[in-house]
Amino acid sequence: MRLKDKVAIVTGGGRGIGETTCLRFAEEGAKVVVADLNETDVQNVAAKIKAAGGEAVGIAVNVTDRDQVDKMIGDAVDQYGRLDILVNNAGITADAKLEKMTEEQWDRVIDVNLKGVFNCSQAAAKVMTGQGAGVILNASSVVGVYGNFGQTNYAATKWGVIGMAKSWAKELGPKGIRVNAVAPGFIMTPMTEKMPEKVLDMMKDKSPLKSLGYPEDIANAYVFLASDEARFITGTVLSVDGGVVL
């Protein structure tokens, strides 16, 4: 098992890519803290892990609230004694063209996708520094690297978490902490499954592989980067996008 006895927190772990990441981490032997805004979702995912013989706890948290984040980190350490991996997967969208984007749409996405990542990482880094080891992984996107129509706020945050990862890799590397980002492309999630067939076909055609990705593809990237197999990888962005940006 590649993550045997590692303790991992996955924000946005209640659904989609986050849920799949929690399940994969547990399969690889990690003790998983499933963190998300919805109490029912986190408990459901934690129950799935336990039913499969893994170890997990669900914690409802708003990553924009520093007090809640500090409590989540503290509860995780109290439960398992340490913190080895943080996956900053929580994120939202509020799309609109530049001329029509409201201040509220801008602020809400920045608050979750940037401030939330900062809150969780700063709190986790304090624990990891004391241990002399740890891994922080930020969820970026191809949109963060190349931009996208109608997603000024989202693109800004997903570029921002890359800058955070590279900065933290330099700051925290001497303390034994690796920091990387993963940039997914078009991924088949419950949300995309509801899209019209012609839209899905268009998304597939953008990839040289003529396929969409699946949550497992992103989860597997997180597993690799969190494992000791990636011990010499830090400050990088791993694109998992089927070549869509070529």
What are the key terms here?
single chain, 246 residues, alpha/beta, Rossmann fold, 7 strands, globular
How does this structure look, described?
- The protein has 246 residues and is of the alpha/beta class.
- It has a single domain (7-184, 215-240), classed as Rossmann fold (3-Layer(aba) Sandwich), CATH 3.40.50.
- Helix content is 49%, strand content 16%.
- The protein has helices at residues 16-27, 39-51, 66-80, 103-131, 142-146, 152-172, 190-193, 197-205, 215-226; strands at residues 7-11, 31-36, 55-60, 85-88, 134-139, 177-184, 237-240.
- The chain has a seven-stranded parallel β-sheet with strand order 3-2-1-4-5-6-7, with helices on both faces.
- Helix 4 runs parallel beside helix 6 (152-172).
- The mean pLDDT is 96.
CATH homologous superfamily designation: NAD(P)-binding Rossmann-like Domain
Beta-strand percentage range: 15-25%
Shape descriptor reads globular
Please indicate the count of domains. Answer: 1
Biggest sheet: strands side by side, in what order? 3-2-1-4-5-6-7
Report Rg: 17 Å
The overall strand count is: 7
The separation of the N and C termini measures 34 Å
Give me the secondary-structure category: alpha/beta
GO biological process, one term: fatty acid biosynthetic process
Subunit structure: Homotetramer.
GO molecular function, one term: 3-oxoacyl-[acyl-carrier-protein] reductase (NADPH) activity
Keywords: Fatty acid biosynthesis, Fatty acid metabolism, Lipid biosynthesis, Lipid metabolism, NADP, Oxidoreductase
